[in-house]
UniProtKB/TrEMBL annotation:
Entries under InterPro entries matching the protein: DNA_recomb/repair_RecN, P-loop_NTPase, RecF/RecN/SMC_N
Pfam families in UniProt: SMC_N (PF02463)
Keyword Cell membrane: no
Coiled coil: 261-292
Organism in which the protein naturally occurs: Patiriisocius marinus
Phylogenetic placement of the source organism: Bacteria, Pseudomonadati, Bacteroidota, Flavobacteriia, Flavobacteriales
Identification of the protein by name: DNA repair protein RecN
GO cellular component: bacterial nucleoid
Domain RecF/RecN/SMC N-terminal: 2-507
Function per UniProt: May be involved in recombinational repair of damaged DNA.
GO terms (BP aspect): DNA recombination; DNA repair; SOS response
Length: 550
């Protein structure tokens, strides 16, 4: 329930705060006093989009704040599902900044409008002259049926099964889309993969292969060059090796004269040994290089194949080709197993569909059983409200579509006259009839479930006299176990309230302001007397007011 409402800088309101109680709270006031402004502020608090034109002073921010006592409402999970911190004493605040931007807070944590709107459904239910046709909405009709029939556990079971079925169905759609796409690419991918497997890519070292190719391709030139090296080194008497040996012998003769000559001789000896080693390697290399046209052709063909694949796939290395080949193989494998995957999903879908059908049928049958009871309850309430001949007929059928609330569809038909022709409720019920129907529906619901705070905005439109008294009695009974707020112009309803708030205008410094005042017993008598006789208060209207209050 809402325990207090604070409004600052909104429309004609400068700064007001009102404390609200359990039971039936009555709000009255002259036309234009600001009752609709009060409702507008409440709607803003509950997630309505902000309108900067409703700010009283554009240089200051507008603040609407409501405090709620949530004890016993079982809303912890709702808070958790919306990433909100739960507190039995919850504060909701809306702000409209001078810039025109708006902000919303729940327990001082910033929230988005969608979060606030989701939460608001469980806190306050506003019914105005423009929204009294909600019972004409199928989803609300089903909600009423489930509340009276106690079918919520069956609905929960059905929705769980629907969730599982929907999840599998989505997976099946995705798998079939993948299969369709894979089938279109299957032949091309298979061709690409076969090209990449024509040569053993994993056994190819491209750098080494290219080096071997260059060696074989230039074998004669290499042999000729290496032969020249050996010839220069080994030329008799004039060869580089013989000359180095002669120089070593000369230095050897001088080593006896000075140790420095011995050192030079040793260094030259190292050069001789190194040259001998180099020449041996040159000899071996020359012997290993052979002119082999067939091997050259084989390597050239292999390299050309590699180059062609690299160019086709726009890569530079054999390793990248291997990655592409593996990816293509994976795609081909996926294509092969998708049929099996689809068959498996179809089996699961069929199984879940049977389970879903069973739960949907149980839900349908349970709802079907409660329809006569619901019709009787509503017709009895309407009889009290001056519609003794009102009759309902509820069409309840099964369809092939599994939706959130079941695979059954509900249509409520209504006639207000004995022997009258039934028509769809939303098409044939007048404004006054719909007001009474909505009150009857809410009264029935209040017996079967915990309702949020209900605000009736002149739901008594089109009624008066004895009917108004009956309507007031129903509201009073409803308010015994819940918080109910009624904005009314009828004294019969105003007199039934346990709390009474008056909305009025007052000029402050030549500026009109809307203000609120909680009325005491004497003030209530005067207010109700004014409602009976207009602004004229007489002994008769005062006596009538006292009689209504008693």
């Amino acid at each position: 329930m809402i325990t207090s409402l604070s409004i600052k800088n909104y429309a004609l309101i400068e700064d007001i705060r009102v404390d609200l109680q359990q039971g039936l709270t009555i709000i009255t006031g002259e036309t234009g006093a600001g009752k609709s402004i009060l409702l507008g502020a409440m709607a803003l608090l509950l997630g309505k989009r902000a309108d900067s034109s409703s700010v009283r002073n554009a240089e200051k921010k507008c603040i609407v704040e409501g405090e709620f006592n949530l004890n016993g409402y079982g809303l912890k999970n709702v808070f958790l599902e919306n990433d909100l911190d739960y507190d039995n004493h919850t504060i909701i605040r809306r702000e409209i900044l001078p810039s025109g931007k708006s902000r919303a807070f729940v327990n001082d944590s910033p929230v988005g409008l969608s979060q606030l709107q989701t939460l608001a459904v469980f806190l306050v239910d506003i019914h105005s002259q423009n929204t009294t046709n909600s019972f004409a909405d199928e989803s609300f009709q089903v909600e009423v049926i489930d509340a009276v029939g106690g079918t919520l556990p069956l609905l929960t079971k059905y929705q769980n099964n629907l969730s599982l079925y929907s999840e599998i169905s989505k997976k099946l759609v995705i798998a079939k889309e993948e299969k369709f796409s894979a089938d279109k690419e299957l032949d091309y991918n298979a061709f690409l993969q076969s090209e990449l497997t024509e040569i053993p890519l994993k056994g190819i070292k491209q750098d080494a292969l290219e080096e071997t190719y260059e060696t074989l391709n230039n074998a004669e030139e290499i042999q000729e060059a290496l032969g020249s090296v050996l010839q220069i080194a080994n030329l008799e008497d004039q060869g580089a090796l013989d000359q180095l040996k002669q120089m070593r012998a000369i230095l050897s003769r001088l080593s006896g004269f000075s140790s420095s000559f011995n050192e030079l001789q040793e260094r030259l000896n190292s050069v001789v040994l190194e040259l001998e080693d180099v020449l041996e390697s040159v000899q071996n290399k020359m012997e290993s290089v052979e002119v082999d046209p067939s091997e050259l052709t084989r390597i050239d063909d292999l390299l050309q194949h590699v180059y062609k694949l690299q160019q086709k796939h726009n890569v530079q290395t054999v390793e990248e080709l291997i990655v592409i080949e593996e990816e293509l193989s994976a795609k081909l494998y996926t294509t092969a197993v998708l049929d099996e995957r689809i068959a498996q999903l179809e089996n699961e879908q069929n199984t879940l569909l049977e389970v879903l059908k069973i739960s949907a049928e149980a839900l349908f049958k349970s709802r079907q059983k409660v329809l006569p009871k619901l019709i009787s309850l509503l017709e009895d309430k309407l009889a009290l409200l001056g519609l003794p001949n009102a009759r309902f007929k509820i069409e309840h059928v099964v369809t092939e579509d599994f939706k959130k609330l079941g695979n059954d569809r509900v249509a409520v038909y209504f006639t207000a006259n004995k022997g009258g022709t039934f028509g769809l409720l939303k098409k044939v019920a007048s404004g006054g009839e719909m007001s009474r129907i909505m009150l009857s529906v809410k009264a029935v619901l209040a017996t079967y479930k915990q309702l949020p705070t209900i605000i009736f905005d002149e739901i008594d439109t089109g009624v008066s006299g004895e009917i108004a008294l009956k309507m007031a009695g129903i509201m009073s009974t409803m308010s015994e176990n819940m918080q109910l707020i009624s904005i009314t112009h009828l004294p019969q309803i105003a007199a039934k309230g346990s709390n009474h708030i008056k909305v009025y205008k007052e000029d402050v410094n030549n500026i009109t302001e809307t203000k609120l005042m909680s009325l005491n017993e004497e003030e209530r008598i005067v207010e109700i007397a004014q409602m009976i006789g207009g602004n004229s208060v007489t002994d008769t209207t005062l006596a009538n007011a006292k009689e209504l209050l008693n």
